[in-house]
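Protocol step 4 of 6.
Sequence for ABC transporter (Cellulomonas gelida) entered exactly as in the expression construct, tag removed. Do not edit the line below.
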Amino acid sequence: MTGTPVIDQPQAPAASPAAASAQSGAPAPRPAGLGDVLRILRPYRARMVLAFVLGSASTAFGALQPRVVASAVDGFQGSVQATTVGFLVGLLVLSAVFTNAQQLVMERSGELFAFDTRERLIRHLFTLPIGVLERRDRADLVSRVTTDISQLRMVMSSGIVELATSVVAVVVSIVMMSLIDWTLLALAVVTIVVALVVIVIIGRRTAPAGLRLQTAMGTLAGAVTRALGSMRTIRATVSADREVGVAVGEAATVLKAGYAAATLRAAIQTFAAVTIQVLLLAIIAVGAMRVAAGSLTVGELSAFIMYLMLMAAPITLCAGIFAQLGEAFGSLHRVLEVHAIEGERDVEALPAAPLPQLAASAPAVFALAHVSFRYPQAPDSAARTDDWVLRDVSVDFRAGATTALVGPSGAGKSTVFALLERFYEPTEGTVRFRGEDVRHLSRLELRRQVAYVEQDAPVLSGTVRDNLVLGAHTATTEQCVDALRQVNLLKADDDGAAFLDCQVGEGGELLSGGERQRLAIARALLAGSPVLLLDEVTSNLDSNNERLVQDLVASAGEQSVVVIAHRLSTVVAADSIVVLDQGRVVAQGTHRELMETCALYRELAHHQLIA
Ligand SMILES: Nc1ncnc2c1ncn2[C@@H]1O[C@H](COP(=O)(O)OP(=O)(O)OP(=O)(O)O)[C@@H](O)[C@H]1O
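Step 5 output, structure tokens:
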């Protein structure tokens, strides 16, 4: 690692245009340019200079060889002197040693560049606001970390040094050729300059084609990942053909973009190869005439041709680099576009307020005051994002008590949890934690106070233990086993050793729905946070296990529990029940009170909560 930022993190304040772009996840406005390339390569300049020096030394030893060959040819009298052969071999070896050293420095720098760029992108991805991540194609983001950075590494790191070294080769060749024959030199230089200009012109057209290709690759990755993640549903709905069609359709888009990029690549490479061939023939023809006229010796013509080859190499190189440059710029654009999205900051304004203690004057662990909320606009989202999801919600969640949130589907219950976790900020109003506005607190510290079991109880791929210790990194095996027992995931006589090492599969697909829920609850219990948020954690549990979870919640003691529940049995025991409807709090009280005063609650109790 270099320790130097490869890509600067935007530091704009929350209300800035950058923040607006963060909300929308908008792409960087302009395509990546040469300035961006120089900026991201800046930390590697020492290595690049070293590679350049080594390459130049290799070129210098290579450039001496034609002179030795010329004198050997012109002075040939039946045999070549051993010293000449020795000298030539020495030059060859030296040239090879420096070339190898240059390649090593370049290749290793390339790997380091890729690693650093990946590290920064991965770190940035983990800070992206939840709202942005939910609207992005995750597989496309992954392909930016993998394919795009590999593409960048190939061209940016080695290509630029090789181009610089080539300049040395060209200059040395021109100087040496000028010592041999000006006419042949003029012919070579004019041809090569024209060729380079043509290559640059065609090369510029590869950038948009490259961006299209890399973007199509990202979309393809998205389509395949989406299908693989829902294979049961796809099979069950007999829609494999349709989904294959979608993925193959994306592959066809990659093919189309690939054809366009390949056409340009082929044009450039062919043009370079033909130019060199034609130039070589022209030099041999004109050179032969000049040898016949006595203005040039055979040895000098041989040396000139060797220098020509040295000088022509950059054309092939430029052609190769330009052929891939478009894709590299496309990849760079895609990497920079993610970096342009402002990450979630731990604290909005320094200094952060210290984590407050519970005060007698503020008995609520969380309190929402006049909170209204709507999700950030997502142009391509199916959700009706212009709708207010919460409207003027004021509610206290008492410390050490269990509060239940109930309401019809879509009432905004999970959204309340999202605000408590600060995945989103309220559009209007304030959320307070122990009396302090959460915007003044460190997000990380706040989240450490809260254990959150999501609605669909997400479980990460890995072992049962990996999942358990997510929120409690230092938990011992005994603590893990204890947590598993609490949620009935272990029999009394099972020491848990084998189960802890069981793989749960991607998204926990090797577990049953109920096991997933109980594992997620065990994780939350193990974290031992003062606040427990449970979002419909009993929906997949049988009545025995449901009662067990209710008992756990009831015995939470000091813990403050907020539970979203669709089952009456979970709700009845709560100290307080908040009824939400269409984003508004319509009633709050105990089960008994609400049964008397709230028609919606009565209806829910009779129809939904009992279900
Ligand atoms: N990430 C999101 N982006 C945009 N809109 C969303 C998002 N999540 C939820 N919504 C919308 O917000 C509204 C409230 O959703 P929420 O999940 O909070 O309801 P809920 O009461 O928890 O529903 P359920 O009981 O069905 O889980 C819904 O209309 C939903 O479409």
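Step 6, annotate. Residues 62 and 95 are 6 Å apart (CA to CA).
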